[in-house]
Design goal:
This protein is of the alpha+beta class. It is 72% helix and 11% strand. It is built from three helices and four strands, in the order ααββββα. It has a four-stranded mixed beta sheet. The longest helix is centred in the N-terminal third of the chain and has 94 residues. The radius of gyration is 48 Å and the shape is rod-shaped. It starts with a helix and ends with a helix.
């Protein structure tokens, strides 16, 4: 029986050694898999961080571009408003000019461009008489300021607000372009 106990003890020792070897092998495999899983997780985390950094840069670029666009639009709107107000003020001044200055302009025009036979100078109502009384003058209620020359059934219009209205769009563009060139 002692031999049986020795054999049983030997079997227990062998089983214990095998169990310990299996356990050690399993622990080793578990540690390797855990390390591999950690490395994979770190790679994925790094990829996510890099992707987030690229997205952050793209988002910052978009936000910056949008901010610059809004700033340009606000600046352009302010410039357009300034130009609009300047032209409105200029038009208001042209609607109510100093009659003495307009008289000088009309008389200078007539010196440089004498009236043809049958020609008439149209002036706004309330305008002072011209120095040359021989120039035929008619007062027109629809004339705001400035003057018109009527001859041979045609009319040359020098009504200041009308001229401003006619030229305003191209003048506004020129003024805005000059303002933008001044910024560069």
């Amino acid at each position: 029986m002692a031999q049986l106990e020795q054999i049983t003890e030997q079997i227990r020792k062998d089983a214990k050694q095998q169990a310990e070897a299996i356990h050690a092998d399993a622990q080793k495999k578990l540690n390797e898999e855990r390390q591999q899983a950690l490395e994979e997780a770190q790679k994925k985390a790094n990829a996510i961080i890099e992707h987030a950094k690229r997205q952050k840069g793209a988002i910052q670029d978009r936000v910056l571009a949008e901010t610059e666009r809004k700033e340009r639009n606000l600046c352009l709107a302010a410039k357009q408003d300034l130009v609009r107000r300047v032209f409105e003020e200029a038009e208001e001044k042209l609607r109510h000019p100093d009659p003495a200055k307009v008289k000088v302009i009309v008389e200078e025009y007539l010196r440089e461009n004498p009236l043809e036979e049958g020609g008439v100078v149209e002036l706004a109502e309330g305008f002072p008489a011209l120095s040359d009384a021989s120039v035929p003058v008619e007062y027109a209620s629809d004339l705001v300021s400035g003057f018109r020359i009527r001859k041979n059934g045609m009319r040359e219009n020098f009504d200041f607000p009308e001229i401003m209205h006619y030229l305003r769009q191209s003048l506004e563009q020129e003024v805005l372009q000059a303002m933008m060139e001044g910024e560069e």
